[in-house]
Amino acid sequence: MTATDVRPAPAAPAPASTAPRPRRRLRGGLPALAFLVLLCAAWQVMSALLDSVLVPGVPRIAAELVEIVVDGSFAEQLGITVLRVGLGFALAFVVAVAVGIAMGRSELARRFFEPAVLLGLTIPGLVWALLCVIWFGIELINPVAAVALSSAPALMLTIYQGTRSVDPDLLEMAHVYHFSRATRLRRLWLPALAPSLFAGARLGLSLGWKVIVLVEVFGMSSGVGYQLNNAFAAQNVAAVLAWTLLFAIVMAVLEYGVLQGLERRAGRWRKAVSV
Amino acid sequence: MSAPAATRVLLDGVGKTFVDARSGARQRVLADFSLAVEPGELVAVVGASGTGKTTLLHIVAGLVQPDAGTVDVGSPRLGVVFQQPRLLDWLPVRQNVTLALEAAGLDPAAADDALAAVGLTDYAGSYPTVLSGGQRQRVAVARAFAVEPDLVLLDEPFSALDELTARKLRLLLQELWMQRQRTGLLVTHNPLEAALLADRVIVLAGRPARIAASYRVEAERPRSPEDPNLFDLHSRIVAAL
Question: What are phi and psi of A183, to 5 degrees?
Answer without folding.
Answer: -65, -45
